[in-house]
Amino acid sequence: MALATDVSDKLSGLFDKHPCWMIASLAEQLDYSVPSVRRFLARIGYYSSFTHNGRWYTLASIPRFEHQGLWFYKDIGFSRAGSLTDTLVLLVSGSAAGMSAEQLGKTLRCRCHSVLVALVRQGRLQRQKLGRSFVYLAADGETAAAQSRAIQKTDRIQLPAEMAVLVLVEFIRRPDAGFGQLAQAITRRTGVRIDAGQVKALFERHGLKKTA
Question: Half-sphere exposure of residue 178, counting CA atoms within 13 Å on the CB side?
Answer without folding.
Answer: 7
